[in-house]
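As described in the Methods, two query proteins were run sequentially through the folding procedure within a single session, without resetting any intermediate state between them. The first query and its resulting C-alpha cells are shown here.
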Amino acid sequence: EAEAAAAKAEQERLAAEAKSKAEAEAEAKRLAQERAEAEAAAAKAEQERLAAEAKSKAEAEAAAKRLAQERAEAEAAAAKAEQERLAAEAKSKA
C-alpha cells in the first residue's frame, strides 16, 4: 500500500512536471509569436516610412523641376520682350 501510494505520488509529480513544462513551452511559443509580430510591424512601419520619404523626395524634385521650368519660361519671355522693345526703339529711330 505504501509502495502504491509512493508510485501514485511519483506519477502525480511527473504529470505535474510535464504539465508545467508544456505550459512553459506554450508561454515561450506565445512570446516568440508576439516578438515575431512586433518585428513584422516594425519592419512594415520602416518600409512605410521609407516609402513616404521617397514619395516626398520625388514630389520635392518634381516641384523643383517645375519651378526651374517656370523660371526658364519667364526668362525667355523677358528676353523676348526686351528684344521687341529694342526692335521698336530701333524702328522709331529709323
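Immediately afterward, the second query was submitted; its sequence and C-alpha cells are:
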Amino acid sequence: MIKEVADALKRKEYKTAARLLKQLLREEPDNPWVRLYLGRLYEETSKLEAAEENYRQLLKSTTNPKIMSQARQGLGRLQAREQEQRQQALAQATATPGSQELGVFVLEAIAAEVKQAAAQKFAQIMQLDPYSARLQLPSRGWRLYRTGAVGKLEFYASSLRQAEIPCFCATLADIRKINVFSLNYFSEISYEGATVVCRNSQEQLGSLTFNWSEVSQRVEYPGYRVI
C-alpha cells in the first residue's frame, strides 16, 4: 500500500493519499515509511509546520539511511520554500510608498522567564544563532537594534510581533516631530512632580512642570539619565 500512496502523491491525488495513509496509520502506526509519506502529504498540501515536525521526529526515531536521507531532503525543501516566501514578502514590503524612508528598529524588554523561548524565535526570524539572539534581546528598557529603510525594518518587526517579541519601528521624520527639551536644572521638586528650566530646539529658555506619574519612559547613558 506504500507504493499506492507514493503513486497518489505523484499524481497529486491528495485525498486518495490521505485515505490510504489513514488506514496505514491504524495498521502500522510505527512504520517509518508511513510517517515519511505522511510528511510528504503535509508538505504537498502546504501544512508546513506539521511536515517539519514529522520529518524532525523521523530523524530522531529511525536509523534507516534511506528514510533519514529523504527526511533531510524534505527539511531542505521546506527551508528553501520558507526562504522564497520570505524574500517575496520582503520585496512586497519594500515596494510600498514610503518604504525607503530611513527609520529605526527598536527591541523592547523581554521578561526573563520567556527569554529563552523568545531567543529561539528571534534567531529563526533574524537568521542568527540562538546564543547571539539571546544576547540581543534586552531584559529591561529598549534597545536600538537596526537602522535602515523602514519598509524592511517593519517587515522584520511584524514577524517578531507575530512571535510575541515586543518591538516597534519609526521613521526618522516621525522622530524629528517629537518635542525635545534640553534640561538646564530643576527649579522645584516635590513628591508629586517637578518644574524644570529647559531649552527647546530653537534654544528658547522656558520652564516645564510635570507630575511624576506622567513619566513613562527613561533612557540611561553612563553618568546620565534622560527622562
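The beta strands are 102-107, 143-149, 167-171, 182-189, 193-199, 205-211, 219-221, 224-226. We note this only descriptively and draw no conclusion about the first query from it.
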